[in-house]
Amino acid sequence: MVRPVSQQRGHLLNLSRTAMDGRAFQPDPWTPSFSDRSSACITPYMDAEREALQSTAYPKVQNFCQKHGLMFEVVDLRWGIRNTEAAEHMTTELCLEELDRCRKTSTGPAFVALLGDQYGPCPVPTLIEEKEWEALRAQLTSKPRDLELVAQHFRRDENAVPPTYLLQALGTSEACGPEEATLTSVLRSGAQEARRLGLITQEQWHRYHWSVIEWEIDRGLLSLTDGDRGATIFLREIQDLNKHILEDCALKMVDRLPDGCLDTDAQNLLRGLKGRIADVQPGVLRAHHLPWSRDLVNPKNKAHARYLKELGDQFVARASHQVLEHLRELEAGRQELAWLYQEIRHHLGLSAEANRTFCGRQELLAQLGQRLRQSDSHPHSPLVLFGPPGIGKTALMCKLAEQMPGLLGRKTVTVLRLLGASQMSSDARGLLQSICAQVCLAYGLPLPPAQVLEAHARVVQFFHTLLHTVSCRNFESLVILLDSMDDVDSICRARRVPWLPPKCPPRIHLILSACSGRQGILDTVRQTLTDPEAYWEVKPLSGNQGQEMIQLLLAASRRTLSPGQRELLWASLPECGHPGRLRLAFEEARKWASFTIPAPLASTAKEAMHQLCARLEQTHGQVLVAHVLGYIASSRHGLSEAELKDVLSLDDEVLQVVYRDWTPPSKELLRFPPLLWVRLRRDLGHCLARRPVDGFTLLAIAHRQLAEVVQERYLSGVERAKRHGVLADFFSGAWSQGTKKLVTLPLVGKPLNLDRMVAPQPLWFSDTVANVRKLKEMPHHLVHSGRLETLKQEVLGSMNWISCRGISGGIESLLDDFDLYAPYLDCPEVGLVREALQLCRPALELRGMERSILYTELLARLHFFTTSHPALVGQLCQQAQNWFRMCPHPVLVPLTGFLQPPGGPLRATLTGCHKGITAMAWSVEERLLVVGTQDGTVAVWDTEEHQVIHMHMGHTGEVRYVKVFAKGTLALSASKDHTLRLWNLLTGQEKFTIWDGGSKDPMHPETWSLHLDETKKVVYLASGSKVSAWHLETAELVFQILGDPSDCWVYAGVLASRATLLTVSQGGVAGLWSSATGKPQGRQHLSSIKEETPTCGVSLQKQGQMVTGFSKGSVSLISPEGDSLLEKLPESVRFLVVSEDESLLAAGFGRSVRIFLADSQGFHRFMATDLEHEDTVETASFGPENNLIVTGSRDALIQVWSLSEQGTLLDVLEGVGAPVSLLVWGGTLVASASQQSSSFKVWDLTSVQQPRASTPFLDRTGLTAVSHDGSYVYFPKIGDKNKVTIWDLAEGEEQDVLDASSEVRCLEVAQQANLLFTGLVSGVVLVFPLNSRQDVMCIPPPEARKAVNCMALSQGEERLAIAYDSIILVLDISPGDPCPVVDGPTYTFYTQLPETISSVAVLADYRVIYGMTDGELFLYECANSKVFPLEAHGSRVTCVQVSHKEQLAVSGSEEALLCLWDLQACKWRFETSYTNSYCRGVQCLCFSKDDKYVYAGLKDRSIIVWSVLDAPWSSFLFARQDTAQFLNC
User: Fold this and answer.
1) Alpha-carbon gap, residue 1019 to 1038, rounded angstroms
2) Using the 8-state DSSP alphabet, how is residue 493 labeled?
3) pTM of this prediction?
4) Residue 595 contacts by C-beta under 8 Å, 6 or more apart in sequence?
5) Mean pLDDT in the chain?
6) CA distance 277 to 287
7) Residue 1082, C-beta contacts closer than 8 angstroms, at least 6 positions apart
8) pLDDT tens, 162-185?
9) Would you tell me the crossing angle of helices 811-821 and 772-784 to the nearest 10 degrees?
């Protein structure tokens, strides 16, 4: 911010630092705000210099600063006001205050002075202390008239401590006294004599002799102890001015006495000032020597024009240099967690200020301390302090933080956050990140890793885990105080507080405060914290305590009150114990001088606020006060001072009032005079809060009552829309960068088209610095100003905006914006975009928010809707395609839609659990999903808001089962740690824990079963050779059954209709027990099973039977009466599931699922064919209406089948990239998860039978080929691998099917020859002409019954290599009529190795590269029959590819190693590897057309681009896509 003070005054420069990245532990989420304020001694009649800087230099510096993440502000307090106002004593005082503010906050230039040939007037001191007054008075006693003159203008204020004499307002005609002695000269003479006698100091003498110029230069430069930091003095010297001093044109350039004579004293002081600058800080001087000319300031004067240009260039260069120097200093001294230390200091500073005037509450503090000590050693509920606004909750919380070690009676780590007082404390995400970081540092624990910080759900889990970790250390107690929960945005909009633990572990204390009776925040907290003893009401102070508080506040400000004023104050506040009201009364009373006769104070806080507004309006004008407070209150997060002054400069109503009685000083530009704002800001005082947000210090309304009064008084009806409209104009940049705006000023009478010189507002200030303020504020103002079409087109429908918001703030912030603003638009297209972004979220969190990933993901999902929704989605896709065309880096450009589109079944991909998911259960009534994990965590998810609402950390071993009951309000979890825990899903509290007495080793191998009889309120847990039953309400053991440890039970089921408990052991023995008492009822060997062991089972309550699966495929029906064989499956039974009404049974085996229908005899096959997967089936689940079944397999795929259509495959869905081990229905929703992934997906399958946008082709075999132009894809037909599907990408549908009559093993496309080569299990290669229906060519195998392993074409398509286990055929392809001819094989060779060939590539010169299953790699020259072994991989070589120029080759393996080979030298060139947590290996490879890049498709469904030219290879990671089955460039 650069603030030129005025003519012959200082430019005050303010550069506010912005944050370039909002993520924690990366570049600082926010850094302190800095201001560069330079007090420029612009002597009177240097208007040309000022205007030159304003019009040319300032915009350049502003642009430079913005590129470095800084806000540039010019503070010129004497610009735009009348000379009489500029010379006021209060103006001088404000200038010096602003100068000090600049010095404290500047990043670069803090003080810039323009010094000419005038020294300027000497201001009259506004305040004289008593001792100094007596010294002056003693010197004036001999001059009664002078003494009378001084006494007329100063009055004694007994309310100051010590007393002072205050200057009274001077009239415009009172510059001179009746005896021709001005007040200034009288005081100066008195000070001169007092100084001679040693009665006052030199500094006090300066107050009566120095001009404003010298005061500002001394304050901004000469008195500094840290050198010339940020200071610059531009000196204008007019040559031979003394020779022309008496000429009329020179009269205005030097100081004159009232009679017109030269003021020699002023000129001498000016020379002395220049000498001081040259002696003390010569390095800051920038002198300009101008030749004398009578038309010196004439714009047509070439010398003067040249001087102005040099001045501007010099200013830009100097300011830029100072900024860079300061930034380098900051970077050199930057601490790793500087943002955290700044956050802590900020809250501690606010706390210290609150504690200075704290009084009372001693009894409440003692009671809270007792409660904390009593609960310190055992789990307990957090505490909540509540009361009406202004009752003193914040002060109490600050005092608690200060006294916590004494209250607890032991060492503590105290974390204090005054919520809403900073950016990070204003939203739950930033709040938890900062708390976790502070706690980790305090206890010496590792900071949360980056992958945790990418998702809020992970941060929540880390927070809960951290609390338990700290508790288990049994060291210092941890106390977290969170004041004003009402000021956290996400809590105000949520139904729950998901991160709030319902119980704190031992030695962990969480204390919250919330307002009662507003916004329902307290009610929201009560849903989580149900213990009534956790709530402590903060009540008003007593009358005596209220008076004590006022006295403390007055003493702290060195003020007192006269007896009459004190009586008036207490009369206005009878027995008032409301601290907020007392603070408001104090703010009024502190302004009273002893001679002031105050008006009665308001009796309520609201009346006090109205009274304040009325007083401000009387002083500053109704329009200015209404608009300033209206803009601040209307902003989303607050406004910086620079922004506010820019906004006021765009407000025509304000400017018309400001310039009602005088005209602006410039004919080219129009700005709001900064002095008017500074005056108003001073009078607002503590009513404005300064909050660090996004690297800036923003102004906000400090008191809720004032905010409410502002809304009522100034923002009703159309006024609210007007305020938002001007703010929208500002943040959109509509009137920046020279765009002029019309205005009609009262004294001009005609429209003026003037530049308002407001800051430009691009989305990006540079390649790395985003305009975060615009991103956060502009949508808010577009909505509330009614500009919904602009919001739709330029924000939610703009790829530039979406990418900028996502890159700068993360995907969660981007989705939050859509959730916040999309409801204002009646536009389904916006909903599609929002859903597409939600679908992109896992990839963006996994790989990071890169623009290429975002554009690829969005285009591949939205491309389906470009025709049906051209207005918004079509434009978005076009914008993405335009960016792809301009992008200089390698990117993946979707040619069509190929990822899951919005509007499909996928509702959300959720992550947060750090280990794989082992158990899931729905609470349909409460719309919750309970998830158990390998590390013992039980997480409760709100599936509507997609967030964790409870995180239970009680288990120490893997969670095996979760059961939800009691209408979805309670859940049971069973863990390998042999504990059973009952949870309240609404409050998150644990009701009881049961240990079943088993092995405490959570890794002990045992089988488990959990059964719940809600009618009898008994829970049964079977583990190993033991079954235990407990009462659900009392947790008392009902009975326990101990079996034979040498023949453990594999499955146990409760048949409630028969009051029987049935067990099946490994040895095939069925046991019967009473489910009420546990007494044995019988034991029998299974007659239907021979030499098989049980693998799974399921209970049938209606039939009173159990279905059990066995290791050799048997499925038996077991009842108390006996057992019978239901079915013999070809492979071991992996799982059994029944429908909700028990009418359907599904048995999984191998890659198949067989469906059975219940009948009077048991079950019979429902369909003639089984449901088939490409990989082993892991799980299945029936739909609630028995019309659907979903099955999950090891290849991470979920298949949806229609049972009403006899097993028709409706859809194939992508899981989480790992084997699908869990599928759970909840109403119309299905949750899918894996034990190998921390993520899970939620699907709505009501849409699978409804028409929707075209979907990607459904191949999941990986045996895919693509035409070179990307128009067609070829893959084995789903469900029939004997056929090949030809998929038209442009149309998004199947174009044709080719019958191969045998299972397809591999495919290759020769696009130039229009041939499709199909390698079959039979060993035959069929060649299909693609441009005609001519006869299919057949290439027979060299040996019978040898399957084709792989094939490859040379880059020119003149050679074909066919590889079998140990044989490779090389054939020629030549032009022919009507179709090309395939001749050969020209060469046939045997590898003569025990391992089989796994991949092959062929060159035009008959060289062949082939990889083996053991990792060996060879180059074979067919012409010479020579073999060159290449460096081996460590595992199976999955793919080999040759570059287009056939000079390089690249190979990939299952160990995720890629090697680049020089084919001329037959040697290794580079290698690199890439691994993922759950999936390894390279699946396919190709070179770019220019051979500069290698594209690798990995098994974790990502594509990586490697630069061939760099060593080591440099990579660009792209988002996880559908399986990377093929690559072609």
Assistant:
1) 9
2) H
3) 0.84
4) 155, 156, 157
5) 85
6) 12
7) 1071, 1072, 1120
8) 999 998 876 544 444 343 347 888
9) 10
